[in-house]
Amino acid sequence: MTTLTTAPFNYLFDDVVYARVSATNVYGFGSVSPASAATGVSIKGVPAQMTSPTEDLALSTDTALTLHWLPLTGTDAGNSDVIAYSLYWDEGDATRASADTPLSDALITTFAVTGVTGGTPYRFRVRARNIYGPGAFSAATTVVPSDAPGKTEIATVQLTDAAQTSVHITWPEPDAHSSAITRYEVLFLKADGGYAEETTHCDGSQASIVSSRLCSVPMGSIRDLTSLPRDSLIRVKVRAFNARGTGAFSEVNTVGSSIETEPTNLSVVSIDVPSTSNVATRVVWTSLTGSARGGKNVAVASYEVYWDQATNGVTWVSLTNTSSLYTDLTGLSGGVTYKFKVRAYNKYGEGPFTSVVSVQTS
Q: In terms of domains, do 25 and 62 share one?
């Protein structure tokens, strides 16, 4: 082949070689044959430079890499079958001038590299070889081993703000597998069995939440989102995202804070007849207990009494706000009807008023 590509023939790569033949004997040369057909042999050479190898993300992790490259055929292969592809790397040594350590030399187009270190850059290059020799190396590809995040551990759900009216959701940082976590998804279990995000206060794409792994959601927002009844456990699950994909959801928490509300309606409010006279009366009621306080762990802060000032229920004003279970009213007029109603307060606000109770002073 080298004879044909040098003087006096000077064939170029991929040129078709033409030849004619004549025979000779003791009487001389015979006629020359016609030129060979254009389908004859072409000038061959080493393979062309290959394109850079690429990482197969579907098969790679932060501890193992899979590289693949495009095969060469036809003129790119030097008009001769490729007999091997040679893959080289730098073993993760950034001080080397190039990827100069052989990894593989075989007729394959995919190779798995194990034992790599997540987050460390590795350089790879490849070249093809045929019977005439190796072609030029491809440009180097730099690959940093990484993977999708690991499974997030169970989140903690608890009331921890100063007013104890917002729910804090916190979770441990999962294994990022050498690719920075870019966002979290926090889902709340609803009464219908489905899950939903609360993006107003717990948007897991916010940088502050990504870094702190904490979001604080008002109890009222959780009630509206989940439609869960009072004293139901607030249950969440969390997963992480990075450039390589999505981690698995955490298990749903089985302990933590429960749904809390304003107090319910007071069931009993009445007038204490022995304490009633022409000029005074006493309004009494029964305390709220248990879940009626707004939740089994919620305390009633006070009770507020309203009266109509003898306006037949037209003009209501607050009479008192007290932690007691009764209130006395003096300075009344005899023979006049007065009306009263009561509601309870807890840390979330006021409950509904009771039904109206009336007394005629006498």
A: no
Q: Which two tokens stand for residue 37?
A: 């057909």
Last residue of a domain, one of 114, 143, 172: 143
- Separation in Å, CA 19 to CA 9, 23, 296, 333: 12, 14, 102, 136
Q: How is residue 329 written in tokens?
A: 């009213």
Question: Which tens digit of pLDDT belongs to each residue from 58-103?
Answer: 999 999 999 999 999 999 999 899 999 999 999 999 999 999 999 9
pLDDT band, residue 18 (cuts 50/70/90): low
Q: Which domain holds residue 204?
A: 156-246
Tell me the Ramachandran region of residue 91: left when phi exceeds 0, alpha when psi lies from -120 to 50, beta otherwise.
left
Residue 114 to residues 98, 127, 153, Cα–Cα distance (Å): 20, 21, 28
In a domain, 196, yes or no: yes
What is the 8-class DSSP label of residue 56? -
How many domains is the chain partitioned into structurally? Answer: 4
Residue 149 lies in a domain: no
Alpha carbons 278 and 244: distance in angstroms, whole number: 81
Q: Is residue 255 part of a domain?
A: no
Q: Which residue pairs from 203-211 have beta carbons closer than 8 angstroms and sit at least 24 positions apart in sequence?
A: 204/238, 209/184, 210/181, 210/182, 210/183, 210/184
pLDDT single digits (tens) 331-358: 999 999 999 999 999 999 999 999 999 9
Average pLDDT in the chain: 93
Considering 143, 169, 197, which residue would you say is the last residue of a domain? 143
Residues 167 and 207 in one domain: yes
**Is there a domain that residue 148 lies in?**
no
Q: What share of the chain is helix, strand, coil (3-state, %, to 5)?
A: 10, 35, 60
Distance CA 13, CA 10 (A): 10
Report the pLDDT averaged over residues 121-132: 97
- Which CATH number fits the domain that encloses residue 133? 2.60.40.10
Distance CA 294, CA 303 (A): 14
For the entire predicted model, the pTM comes to: 0.80
